[in-house]
Amino acid sequence: MPHAYNRTAFQSGRMSTNPLLSLYCSFVVVELALKDARVAASAQWDRSHDVLLWITEIQDPVLNSLATQLATALAGIKCTLKDGTEGTVSPRMYPSVRYLRHESDFAGTTTEAEIQSALTVMQEIEAELKRHGVLQ
User: Fold this and answer.
1) Average pLDDT over residues 33-51
2) In angstroms, rounded to a whole number, what is the distance separating the alpha carbons of residues 129 and 136?
3) Which of 27, 52, 60, 105 has its CA 20 to 30 A from that of 89?
């Protein structure tokens, strides 16, 4: 299993009591598993972070529905964009979740409930990917 060390490291972060850390680490674990599965199936290594695209490539109705739910959840999460302005986390570029604007730092922005909502969908995606043999 390629990138097993990396996955193990980020899997430990998924168990954090901090939902932002858990969400980010869950994305990394899923990204590595999907990239490794795509390479094993003769696809080239993809430098992007388009986890949602790769999820839908599995062509499973449950995963497709969860990908849509995740895109909706991420659209409600505010972050700081490259130019320093406020925007939302792109479902095609999850690493921007690292620059999340939490309501404790930026009034009227992302709440714990919004982070938890995205995390819950990611956990459901992980369970489905395990069912498909993509995650262990």
Assistant:
1) 79
2) 8
3) 60
